[in-house]
Amino acid sequence: MRIQGGNSKALLGRETTGEVLDTREHRGIVSYDPTELVITVRAGTPLSELMQVLDAAGQMLPCEPPDFGCATLGGMVAAGLSGPRRPWSGSVRDFVLGTRVITGLGKHLCFGGEVMKNVAGYDVSRLMAGSFGCLGVLTEVSLKVLPKPRLCSSIALQMDSSQALARLAEWGQQPMPISAASHDGQVLRLRLEGGEGSV
Question: Which pTM value belongs to this model?
Fold first, then answer.
C-alpha cells in the first residue's frame, strides 16, 4: 500500500509500490481555539488551507513547513520537513502534541493529546514525525501553534562564506531576532522577525 496525500514528497524516503491510499478526502479542522494555541486537523487537509485558518487568527506553524503547492498536513508530519525557521523555532516533531493513527492491522490508535505537558510515558505521537507512514496512516494531528511576529524584515550583507559562518556563530550567541538565513557564496541573507524594539 502507498499512502499519499498531495504526493508532493514522492521523491523522499524509500520507494513504495502498491495500491494508493489517498488521504485528501479526510480533511478539515477538527478543533481550534486560538487562545489555546492548539489546532487539531485531519491528515488530508492541504497545508494552504491550514495556513489560511491560522493566518486569519494571527497565528502560524512555527516549523514553517514547505508547501510545494499541494502538500497536506499528514505529509508534512510523515516527512518531518521543516523550513528555514527550524534552527530558531524547532522542527515539525517539536510541535506535534497528539496523533490518531490507523495501523497496518487496521487498529485505530490515539497518542498524546492537546496539551504541551504530557506525562503519560514515551511520546509516540512525536515519533510519527519523519516516519513516512511506516508506523501507520495518520488520520488526525494536534499541533502547537504560535502567534505570528508583528514585524518582518530582510537584509542582505556582502561577505564570503567564512565571514558569514563567523557572523552567524557570533549572532547565535546573542538574542537576535533571526528567523531564517542563507548564503550563496557572496551574500548572506537574513530574515528578522519580532516586535518593534527588536527588528
Answer: 0.81
